[in-house]
Structure formats: C-alpha cells, structure tokens
Amino acid sequence: MERVYLDYAAATPLDSRVLAAMMPYLTTRYGNPSSLHYWGQQARAAVQRSREKIATSLAVPSTRMVFTGGGTEADNLAILGYLRANFPHGGHLVTTAVEHHAVLRTFAFLATQGYEVTQVPVQADGRVAADAVAAALRQDTVLVSVMAVNNETGACQPVEAIAALTRERHIAFHVDAVQSYGYRAWHPADTGIDLLTICSHKIYGPKGVGALYIGPGIQVAPDTYGGPQEHRLRAGTENVAAIVGFGKAAELLEQERPARICRVTALRTLLYESLLSSPDLRDIRYNGSRHHTAPHIINISLAGADSAVLLIALDRLGIAVSAGSACEAGAVRPSHVLQAMGVPDKWLRGSLRISLGKETTADDIRRFVAALQKVATGIYKGERL
C-alpha cells in the first residue's frame, strides 16, 4: 500500500542533506567536544558552527543559545530554570489554557510548590486576546509563557502584543516557538522575547535535540550538575551528530522558508476547499482561526465521531494523521485545546489534525479527502469500521 503522511506537526522526515551532514559525526568524527586533542576539537568546532547557524536564523548572538534534548526540555529549562535563578520561593505566573503539556504540566507542578498560576482563557478561534493577558498581570507576576503557534489547531497567538506588555512591566516572557519556527522568521531580541524554545524534528532535522534562546540579562539556573557544557546549564557530553543535524536543518530552513510557506499555503487552501465542497462530509467543523493561523496545520471535527476510530480507519486506508499532540497519543480524554475553545460536545471527540510538509503533494490531499469521505460515509451508515 502506498501511504500518505500528513502528520508533519508531530515529526518531519530527516532531510537527506541533514543526514549527510550528520554521518561523519556518527562514524569517523567521534571525538568528545570536551577533549583537547584533534578529535575532540573537531567535534567542538562542529557544535559551535551549528550553534552559530541556529543563532543566525534567530538574529541573535550564538552565546545566547543553549542546546537541549528537545523542545520539552527547553521549555522546562526556560520556566523552571528562570524561577530557580530569580524567584525560587514563589510568585505569580501567567500562561494560557491551550499550551503544550510541556508547559501546562510544568505550571501545574509549580502550583504545588508555592507559585500562583493564572491560565488565561482563549477565544472560540483558539487565540488569546492580548487584553485578557494584560488583565491577568499583577504586581507580583514574574513570568509569562505563551506559545507562538498552537500545535493542535495552528492558531497564532499575538506574541508581539504580549511582549510589549511584559517588557513595559519588566516581566520575563517565554515563548514556545516549536511549531512556528519552520514557518516564521523569529527575531526574539527585537520582539521583546526573553526566552524562546525551538527544536529540530519539526524542521527536517533529527529527533532528540532542541535549543533555548536566553536573552540578555536573563539568569537561568541548571537542573543537572556535572561538567561545564552548554554554558554550565546542561551538564553532559553533547549529542554532536544531532546538533550538527539541527544546525544543517536550520541553515536549509533559512534558504528555503519562503518557498516552503508558499507551497504549504497553497496545499492548505486546496485541503480546506476540498473538505468544504465534499457532499459526503456533512456535519464537519473547522476548529481554529481562518486568518491568524500557521500554514501547515488544519484541525477539523466530524460530528458524532470518535477520533481513535477515525485514526485507525484512516490508517487502514494508508493515511497518517493525528488527533492532536503526538505526545498525548493514546489519550482517551478530549483535547484540552478544543475544550478551552468551547467546541460543542457534538464535535469534541471527533477531531483530526492534518499537518502538511514540504513533501506533501496535491495528490496526497485528494487521497486523504477521498479516504475521509469513505470513512465518514461508513460512520453515517452505522457501519463497523
């Protein structure tokens, strides 16, 4: 069976050019970057070149970048590390109700440790209003964390407006840019973002490596202790091959981002119009913003359906999509994002996230829509899928 992959928001395939850049560091260039000999300095130089490539993509000095084991670790280092260094005994924290669980569960933990957490609600399109964030800020607010693009719906948050609020009040601002990095050029220093999270496997790099931008004047304390690696913020030998791959993926992204955006935007329009025009897809709902959205994510719901049933049925037809965050795969609970948006029960449990990438074709879109029509027809007829 020829399969169609439409789950790029979960993971992108490794670009062949990225793999080629990594291979020497998986084979012949095996030195430890902390070693003083030739092999060690070869590895150390490779890590630094990648750091510079990623920093260039964010228009920041390379000294502001710290490599981590992925986006979740970078989120944790940003939030917990900042509080450990500056407000270890409590304070008021602000986030939104639709964050990735890497942020939400970190804040839930902090709520048990003497911190007071405010989750700002979102509007029906999944976006938080900057005015609502402003209303949530207090004299004792010490940190705000808002994601740039929602990983389930693609909704873009008003990061610039929130950054203006936090900068004016001298409150640290963290942004999870994992889903947006591949489709928007971020310049956190100019925007007023103090801490910014990105990762590799959303931009055709390897899994298991991420990065955190730490702005000037921002102090972060480590949660692991050992060697002096990564500015003494992440002890342990660096994953050199993965870091090299991340750097190459960032370099390619800078060269190709406009073309990728153009391609994916056209395919997204085709997908949206194909879904709306299908006579077999009655009672379908679009979840999210039509105008303030990332180009690669669409979230829909089929009335009365069950996401798990839909995913399995589509997979049997060779179509790979998701119901939301890959980190929550297998969860039987409805999406916390859709619940926060106030999606009615009729559509709440039958959601699908379709996410596109640079390898997606128009034929992939047509095959997905045809498969969804077949599955939906069976559901409407009460057939066992």
The main β sheet shows up as: 7 strands, mixed
* Number of strand elements: 12
Secondary structure: helix percent: 40-55%
Beta percentage is 5-15%
CATH topology of the largest domain, anyone? Aspartate Aminotransferase, domain 2
**What strand line-up does the widest sheet have?**
2-8-7-6-5-3-4
Keywords: Aminotransferase, Iron, Iron-sulfur, Metal-binding, Pyridoxal phosphate, Transferase
Cofactor: pyridoxal 5'-phosphate
Family: Belongs to the class-V pyridoxal-phosphate-dependent aminotransferase family. NifS/IscS subfamily.
Organism: Megasphaera lornae
Question: What are its keywords?
Answer:
three-stranded antiparallel sheet; 13 helices; seven-stranded mixed sheet; 385 residues; Aspartate Aminotransferase, domain 2; 2 domains; alpha/beta
Describe the structure in your own words:
The protein is built from 13 helices and twelve strands. It is α/β, with parallel strands linked by helices. The protein folds into two domains: 133 residues, Aspartate Aminotransferase, domain 1 (Alpha-Beta Complex), CATH 3.90.1150; 237 residues, Aspartate Aminotransferase, domain 2 (3-Layer(aba) Sandwich), CATH 3.40.640.10. Strand 6, helix 7 and strand 7 form a beta-alpha-beta unit. Helix 1 runs antiparallel to helix 9. The model has no long low-confidence stretch (mean pLDDT 94). Its EC number is 2.8.1.7. Belongs to the class-V pyridoxal-phosphate-dependent aminotransferase family. NifS/IscS subfamily.
